[in-house]
Specification:
- Keywords: Membrane, NAD, Transmembrane, Transmembrane helix.
- It is found in: Cell membrane; Membrane.
- InterPro entries: NADH_UbQ_OxRdtase_su1/FPO.
- Helix 3 (48-66) runs parallel beside helix 9 and helix 4 runs antiparallel to helix 5 (107-138).
- The chain has 11 helices and no strands.
- It has 287 residues and is mainly α.
- The mean pLDDT is 85.
């Protein structure tokens, strides 16, 4: 379970980085303390159970996804279907955000929840195709086997479209940076608009957790896993994960939020055809 603990630390690091890039490195920690001491806000006719399930299941899904992430050649849970498990836990996040938006009985929160369903559906397809492309290149759904298959050349080099689509879709799945529509300011915070106190803190922890786990999975998928000179495998995995995580966190505040209709058009008209073509090319090469 050490791998899960490491990813938890990386989630905290992501929160710190988001504040550092904004010029306020300690702001996330002050906000965490404030939320822990803030009383929960309850809206009229809200469903507290659904709201709590939505908030809690988001970090739970991130933690479950972390179980199959290898650091070096070790993972908390060794499974031959790690790619499928990781993707399934990401889909759980759809229900988490939607429940959090639905349960509070607020128009803005509900809009945010439905936005995430639309965004998740659009970007899940290129995300899934990117995962399948890496698995196809290694003839396996095991993240450890995929990492080992990159001994000569990283998949990010000869599958650049899949790698780029993976990173973009990760931002959408974590509703981060240019894809913050589900929690956008134009809908008063969207799915998070009525979450307060510990509920909001747990929800935010899940969001950072998703981002950290997705960054960690990109390493065995496209960056050769723990392969590298001098350093042990687990340390190389950690270094690469931190680099990808820093890139993902940097996009917030540096890349403007894309208009919702344009974000959907980009997914359906550009990313999906591009990833299908990339998968087709990889299939020809490996077969």
């Amino acid at each position: 379970m050490a791998e899960v603990a490491v990813l938890g630390v990386l989630a905290v690091a992501a929160a710190a980085l988001s504040g550092a890039f904004a010029g306020r490195p300690v702001a996330p920690f002050r906000e965490a303390v404030r939320l822990l001491t803030t009383q929960r806000r309850v809206t009229a006719a809200s469903d507290r159970m659904l709201t709590r399930i939505g908030a809690i299941s988001l970090p739970v899904s991130a933690a479950l996804a972390a179980l199959v992430v290898p650091f070096g050649d070790r993972a908390a849970v060794g499974t031959s279907v790690g790619v499928v498990w990781f993707n399934a836990m990401e889909v759980v996040a759809w229900g988490s955000v939607w429940l959090a938006g639905w349960g509070v009985n607020s128009a803005y929160a509900l809009v945010g929840g439905y936005r995430f369903i639309a965004q998740g559906l659009a970007y899940e397809l290129p995300h899934m195709f990117a995962l399948i492309t890496a698995a196809l290149g290694a003839h396996s759904l095991d993240l450890r086997v995929i990492a080992d298959a990159q001994g000569g050349l990283w998949f990010a080099v000869w599958m650049p479209v899949a790698f780029a689509a993976y990173l973009v879709s990760v931002l959408a799945m974590a509703f981060w940076g240019p894809f913050e529509h589900p929690v956008g300011g134009d809908v008063a915070g969207g799915a998070m608009s009525e979450l307060s106190g510990p509920d909001r803190l747990v929800f935010l922890a899940g969001r950072y957790g998703l981002l950290a786990v997705a960054a960690a999975v990109s390493v065995p998928l496209f960056l050769g896993g723990g392969a590298g000179p001098l350093l042990p495998g687990w340390l190389w995995s950690l270094v690469k994960t931190c680099a990808v995580l820093a890139l993902l966190v940097w996009t917030r505040g540096r890349v403007p939020v894309v208009r919702m209709d344009r974000a959907m058009t980009a997914a359906w008209a550009v990313l999906i055809p591009a990833t299908v073509l990339q998968m087709f090319v990889v299939g020809i090469v490996v077969v």
